[in-house]
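Late entry, written up from scratch paper. The run itself happened at the end of the previous shift, but nothing got recorded in the book at the time, so transcribing now.
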Amino acid sequence: MATRPPPPRNAAPADGTLNRALALHQAGRLDEADALYRQVIRQAPGHFDATHLLGVVALQRGDLPAAEALIAQALASKPRDAAALNNLGTALLRARRLDEAREQFERAVKAQPGHVDALSNLGSVLRQTGRVAESVAPLKRAFAGNPKSAEIADLLGASLLETGDSRAAAAVLEAAVKAHPGLARAWTHLAVASQRAGDAKRALEAADAALRIEPRTVQALGQRGQALAALGDAAAALDAFAAAVRLAPEEAAARHNFGVFLREQGEFDAAIGHLRGAIALDPGLAEAHEALVDTLLEAGRVDEAAKLGGAYSALHPEGAAAPAMMAATLFAQGRIEESLELWRRAAAAPDAASSTHYGFGNALMASGDAPTATKHFARAVELDPQNARARLSLAM
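Output as recorded:
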């Protein structure tokens, strides 16, 4: 969250100078504020507010070492000041010292449990360090304290989506678009959440709202395509995906989305071309590798799929994608029992996608374990309510 100077609290002869400095600071006149804060410190050495706010000026200028030194100096006299702890954490966060930043945000929240900026910053740094599930609680508290903040809603919505609570994410993002109806980003994120919650109609409405505000929003075009595909309008979906690729030919996600759609339409050669293009643009895009392997297998090009899956696994052995690709290849070769252990490993990974659980379910069905297969089909639908194949398998 953005830093901002708090009101002064010390009662001292230098207060008149401090108040003038604060007014200049709030007006963005940093050089003049800097000079007056230094004057206060000369008049009252160790003055908490002047030292802290001088550190905030340094932070706003991007002078992170000076900001850290000054705010830490101020905290020596008031170690439980939440605003100063939050600002010190912000300086450390911008310096990419994430664990140290988290410690300061935690101290700020402990000192003042309702400090919205500290709660939001704590949630943000937890997300950045891969602790997404832990980020939900502080972000919920931050959102409760400031439900009109689009920034907090975005963070909380993203964490809820990544932890599988799509409906809660959609509710949060509905509040965001209500508070900021002219913000295309908020509408786009609502489209993502609505799509994952299984509400394709609302996803389409949200994507269209984003595109009315910013017609060249690539992600919104992709969400429009996914919603239209889910609603059965394949021709309009094709137009949306194609428009996204034309608008951003160097964006891997746009090519990936188009490739997945084309695969679902049975256009395997075109799908393979777009998925290869996505991988060329972003070699680390695991879902594009996985989609390409699946498409090659569906097209009967098993040897190519095996080669691609093996190459990816050698470079990226962690996570769900590598074992899922190898398992899919073994399953396509009729080596069902061999595939099961790899599917089991893939499905147990924290990043296991809907397609992984669907593939595992198919292998379990082929091995005669219908009850366990049903559980994985259900998980596939839970992760992606628009996964038509998983829904059909679950129904059957």
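The radius of gyration is 26 Å.
(Scratch paper discarded after transcription.)
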